[in-house]
Amino acid sequence: MDYKAEILRLKEKLPVTIVGHYYQRDEVFELADITGDSLELARKCQLDNNPWVVFCGVGFMGQSVKVIAPEKRVLMPKIACCAMARMIDGSYFDDSVNYMVERGIKKEDILPITYINSDATVKAKVGQMGGLVCTSSNAYKIIEKGLESGKKILFVPDRCLGQNFANAMGLKSCVIGEGECDPKEADIICFNGFCSVHQLFTVDDIKFYRQKYPDILVAVHPECDPSVVKEADFVGSTSQLIKYVQSLPEDQKVVVGTEYNLVNRLRKKNTYVLSATKPECPTMNETTLEDLYRVLKSIEDGEPINEIFVDAKVAKYAKLALDRMLEIK
Ligand code: 13P
Ligand code: SF4
C-alpha cells in the first residue's frame, strides 16, 4: 500500500491535526501539520481548532496535550515511552521529597519542578505541592520563577538539565544518590534520571572534532552531561539548536549533540553529529508511516485506536503544574 498517499487522503478528509516532534523519522515528520520542540508543541496544540490530534512523539507529549486540552481526542500512532520519563513514578517522587524532609527541609519549604519528560502522575504530585513543569527551552525562566518563592527546588527527573541550569545561573546543585547530597547546602536538589541518548556525547568527542577542525562550533542539548555542556559553544532545546545552526554562515562547521534525525535534517554541508555511535532515540523512532496510517484510518472507520486517557484527579493536578508553566511567557 502507498501509505503516504493514503495519509494525505485521510488528512484532507478528517478534522485532524498531525503533530510531529523533531526526532521523528523524516517520512513521518514531513507529513505533520504542527512541528516544534516540546514547549511549542504544547502551546500550538492548545490553540489548534481540530477536535482530533494524532501525536507522533513519545507518551508524555500526547498525555500533556490531553491534560491541557481535555476536550480533544488525542491518539498516538505508537504509545512509545521516553526512557527518561520512565525513570521516575509517584513513589520515587515521594521518596525524593522524604529524602529532603529527613535532612531537615520542611515539606512546605520544597518547590518541585518537573521536566515535561515525565508521566502525568508525577506532574500531578508536583502540581499538588504548588510546583510547575519546565521544558529545555524555558527551564531558566521557570527556575528563576521558582527561586522567587524562597524555597528549595526539587528538580525531577533529569539530573543533567537540573545541574546545567544551576551552573548557568550560578546556583549550587546536588544529585540524590550521587556522593554527598545535603539539601541544606544546595539550591537545586536533582533526581538521578537521565537520557541515555544524550549520554552518548562526551568531552572526548568534542576534543576529537576540535582537533580535526580547529574552528568548528559545538552545539548541544541541555540533556547532555554537565561536563559536555561546559565545553560547548551553544546549548539549547531542539528548536533553539535548529535556529542556531541555521543562522551560521554556510562555510561555518558545526557539530551537534542531539538526536540523529534532527541533526541529519538540519543542513547537509558542514554539519556533524557529535558521536561515533548513531544517536537515535529508540522510542521516537518506533513510529512508522504504517502506524500513522493505521491510526488515521481508525478515525475514519469510527473505531479509534491508541487513544490517550488520563485519570480525572491526576489530570486536574497535572494541569495545574502545566498551566503554571504556560502562563510564564
Ligand atoms: P525539546 O523540548 O528540546 O524538544 O526536547 C525534548 C526531548 O525529549 C529531548 O530529548
Ligand atoms: Fe526521552 Fe531521550 Fe528520547 Fe528525548 S531523546 S524522548 S529524553 S529518551
Number of strands: 13
The low-confidence runs, each spanning 5 or more residues with pLDDT under 50, are: none
Morphology call? globular
* Total number of domains: 3
Number of helical segments?
14
3D architecture notes:
There is one protein chain. This protein is α/β, with parallel strands linked by helices and 329 residues long. The protein has three domains: 3-81 and 284-309, Rossmann fold (3-Layer(aba) Sandwich), CATH 3.40.50.10800; 85-194, Rossmann fold, CATH 3.40.50; 198-273, Rossmann fold. Helix content is 41%, strand content 15%. It has 14 helices and 13 strands. It has helices at residues 3-13, 26-29, 38-47, 59-68, 90-102, 120-128, 139-147, 159-168, 203-212, 226-231, 238-246, 260-266, 289-300, 312-327, and strands spanning 16-21, 34-36, 52-56, 73-75, 110-115, 132-134, 152-156, 173-175, 188-190, 217-220, 234-235, 254-257, 271-273. The strands form three sheets. The chain has a five-stranded parallel β-sheet, with helices on both faces. It has a four-stranded parallel β-sheet with strand order 2-1-3-4, sandwiched between helices. The protein has a four-stranded parallel β-sheet with strand order 11-10-12-13, sandwiched between helices. Strand 10 (217-220), helix 10 (226-231) and strand 11 form a beta-alpha-beta unit. Helix 3 packs parallel to helix 4 (59-68), helix 4 (59-68) packs across helix 14 and helix 6 (120-128) packs across helix 14 (312-327). The longest helix is centred in the last third of the chain and has 16 residues, at 312-327. The mean pLDDT is 97. Bound molecules: 1,3-dihydroxyacetonephosphate and iron/sulfur cluster.
